[in-house]
């Protein structure tokens, strides 16, 4: 079975909301199928150490592990993949220097989605589906923008941005392979329970 089935509930860390290790453990207990370590402005050594811990945890729970932005850290901690945005390492270069990594490309339009697929991305993180307080200056593409991307590419698509248990069903019905969330899980009082609730919705729609 390909990695696609592991994209269905993709939880991203946010240390402004919760410390990583315990929150990731809870998310994995609740049924997260993939974890992304997203740390901005920390020393590389700290990212490396955290990445090693999260790598170990995700293996225990049979989940995929991705690192945001940093291909070097992803390689060093033996992550399954790296999430690259428009300001990070170009996809085609990343594929050359790290052929073992899955490359997730962050895209904000149909044009960017087609371009990332042509350059060899393994999956897309497409958003922002809805407005979000978690990241500033996002471009909101809405459900229609997301649907256009899903219908136009052959690689798996994960939706991101403002997704929560109220709107997750309609997002999943666009045909995406999974949903990526930060605040819906990391902002909850009970991370495990919030993840379980989302996982239930994902199972209802995607099976
Ligand atoms: C699964 C997923 N999709 C999109 C993003 C956003 O990535 P990026 O544009 O690199 O922005 P930052 O997260 O780095 O602020 C993501 N992280 N994950
Ligand atoms: C990190 C990120 N990237 C986005 C994009 O549109 O690419 S939206 C976003 C924030 C997602 O957090 P929440 O689930 O709390 O809305
Ligand atoms: Mg990034």
TrEMBL record:
Keywords for the protein's UniProt record, in alphabetical order: Magnesium, Metal-binding, Thiamine biosynthesis, Transferase
Binding site for 2-[(2R,5Z)-2-carboxy-4-methylthiazol-5(2H)-ylidene]ethyl phosphate: 132-134, 162, 182-183
Cofactor(s) needed: Mg(2+)
Residue positions binding Mg(2+): 69, 88
InterPro entries tied to this protein: Aldolase_TIM, ThiamineP_synth_sf, ThiamineP_synth_TenI, TMP_synthase
Top-rank EC class of the record's enzyme: transferase
Cofactor binding, note field: Binds 1 Mg(2+) ion per subunit.
GO biological process: thiamine biosynthetic process; thiamine diphosphate biosynthetic process
EC number: 2.5.1.3
Coiled coil: none
Domain named Thiamine phosphate synthase/TenI: residues: 9-185
Record field: catalytic activity: 2-[(2R,5Z)-2-carboxy-4-methylthiazol-5(2H)-ylidene]ethyl phosphate + 4-amino-2-methyl-5-(diphosphooxymethyl)pyrimidine + 2 H(+) = thiamine phosphate + CO2 + diphosphate; 4-methyl-5-(2-phosphooxyethyl)-thiazole + 4-amino-2-methyl-5-(diphosphooxymethyl)pyrimidine + H(+) = thiamine phosphate + diphosphate; 2-(2-carboxy-4-methylthiazol-5-yl)ethyl phosphate + 4-amino-2-methyl-5-(diphosphooxymethyl)pyrimidine + 2 H(+) = thiamine phosphate + CO2 + diphosphate
Domain of life: Archaea
GO cellular component, one term: cytoplasm
Annotated PANTHER family: THIAMINE BIOSYNTHETIC BIFUNCTIONAL ENZYME, THIAMINE-PHOSPHATE PYROPHOSPHORYLASE
Family the UniProt entry places it in: Belongs to the thiamine-phosphate synthase family.
Protein name (record): Thiamine-phosphate synthase
Organism (species): Thermococcus chitonophagus
Upper classification of the organism: Archaea, Methanobacteriati, Methanobacteriota, Thermococci, Thermococcales
């Amino acid at each position: 079975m390909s990695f696609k089935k592991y994209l269905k509930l993709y939880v991203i860390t946010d240390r402004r909301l919760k410390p990583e290790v315990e929150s990731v453990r809870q998310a994995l207990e609740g049924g997260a199928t993939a974890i992304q370590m997203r740390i901005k402005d920390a020393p590389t050594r700290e990212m490396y150490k955290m990445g090693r811990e999260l790598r170990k945890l995700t293996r225990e729970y049979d989940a995929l592990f991705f690192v945001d932005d940093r291909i070097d850290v992803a390689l060093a901690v033996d992550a399954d993949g790296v999430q690259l945005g428009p300001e990070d390492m170009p996809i085609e270069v990343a594929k050359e220097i790290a052929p073992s990594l899955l490359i997730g490309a962050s895209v904000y339009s149909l044009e960017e989605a087609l371009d990332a697929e042509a350059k060899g991305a393994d999956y897309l993180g497409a958003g922002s589906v809805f407005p979000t307080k978690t990241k500033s200056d996002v471009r909101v593409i809405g459900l229609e923008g997301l649907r256009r991307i899903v219908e136009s590419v052959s690689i798996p698509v994960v939706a991101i941005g403002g997704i929560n248990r109220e709107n997750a069903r309609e997002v999943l019905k666009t045909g995406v392979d999974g949903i990526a969330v930060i605040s819906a899980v990391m902002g909850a009082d009970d991370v495990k329970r919030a993840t379980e609730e989302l996982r239930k919705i994902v199972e209802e729609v995607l099976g």
